[in-house]
Amino acid sequence: MAPTAPRRAEAGAARTYTITELAAEFDITPRAIRFYEDMGLLMPARAGRNRVYAQRDRTRLKLTLRGKRLGLSLQEIRDLVELYDSPADTAQQLGAFVRTLGQHRALLERQREDIEITLAEIGQHEARCRRLLAAAGRPVSRRGVTIAERS
User: Fold this and answer.
1) Residue 98's CB: how many other CB atoms inside 10 A?
2) Half-sphere exposure of 124 (CA within 13 A, CB side)
3) Is residue 34 predicted with pLDDT exceeding 90?
4) 7-22 core/surface letters (b: 16 or more CB in 10 A; e: else)
5) Alpha helices in 7-52 (DSSP H)
6) Phi/psi at 5 (nearest 5 deg)?
């Protein structure tokens, strides 16, 4: 679903977004946006009871969702988004991002090693079970179904 036409308070005013527009644009629920708001990642203005999101909020939401896709924690995302908002030079921001990505890469590599070890152990257990079943006269197919069960 495409976002609706830009909302402008007056000619030349900055673009604003409703929660529904942002939810549609980023294919997330309004509840998720409110959650990011509660976590301090978004800070919309209010027009009565309605939330009014500025371009800054849209950018912060985009960065938040990108961080989630990378598997970063909300705290890591918040730190990076706050750096984005800071007037400091980009070298500090990029350095922090590189450090965060390096830590996350190391974690994922450890998890991949653990998964590979676990898969090897599963393979050993499967092979042992197949040998025992074959010795008992009950050979098993690759999918785990005994030959007798398929007949």
Assistant:
1) 10
2) 6
3) yes
4) eeeeeeeeebbbbebb
5) 19-26, 30-38
6) -60, 150
The burial of 44, by beta-carbon neighbours within 10 Å (0-12 exposed, 13-18 middle, 19 or more buried), is given as: buried
Domains of the chain, CATH where assigned: 1-70 (1.10.1660.10), 86-151 (no CATH)
**Structure pTM?**
0.62
| Alpha-carbon distances of 5 from 12, 53, 71, rounded to whole Å | 15, 14, 33
Q: What tokens does 87 get?
A: 């007037």
pLDDT digits (tens, 9 = 90+) for 120-131: 999 999 999 989
**In this structure, what token pair is assigned to residue 88?**
């400091």
Contacts of 67 (CB under 8 A, 6+ apart): 76, 77, 80, 81
- Residue 100: CB partners within 8 Å, gap ≥ 6? 72, 76, 79, 80
Kindly provide the b/e burial profile for residues 58-97, where b requires at least 16 CB atoms within 10 angstroms of the residue's own CB.
bebbebbbebeeeebeeebbbbbbebeeeeeeeeebeebb
Structure tokens at 30: 């309004």
Q: How far apart are CA 3 and CA 95, in angstroms?
A: 35
